[in-house]
Amino acid sequence: MHRDIEELRTQSPRPETPEPGSRQGRRNPPEAGVQLLDDDSAISIALESCLKHVFAKYCTPRPVPAQQRGEMLEPPEGAYLTNEGLDAWARDTNGAPFDEATKEEILEFMDVTEDGGLTFKGFMQVYQLQTENDEEETWRDLAAHGFDRTLRLVATRREDSDIDPRLASQASPASVTPSLISMVHRQRRKGKLR
Q: For this UniProt entry, which segments traverse the membrane (predicted)?
């Protein structure tokens, strides 16, 4: 009659759901040695490094090209995502650009330039919200950009090295799950956003 706890967890309809007492952003297996959020629930240094690389692929001005294949990119000082860069990032991450309502939410609640370009700080705010609310979505985003569960860049996609992502073909609007809009509203109700 007594089942092994691990057997019960793997037979759960949602085995990825955190155990009681665990927190979003800190569920990676201990042997991986990395977490998305630190003990203060802020973006970990390792995740920030990955996000710099992803942001740099789509930002303006463009970063200096990496010297070796697989080397991490760094966004230049004052870099931001234009509307085209935002669409390219969404397309490469989710398969389609954001719809207009999601873009409006990003520009209203995240850190942007005076001209409405998403800054790296704003990009980190997006991932802070997402990771607090749906850690697995952040892991999927990282995997889409070639990172493994140890946050190492293990694969580059052909698009990363051959063409500027802003020139990629247009696709239908992205569906963000959970939507950025609902995450922003939840955080606003909790008093974490203005």
A: none
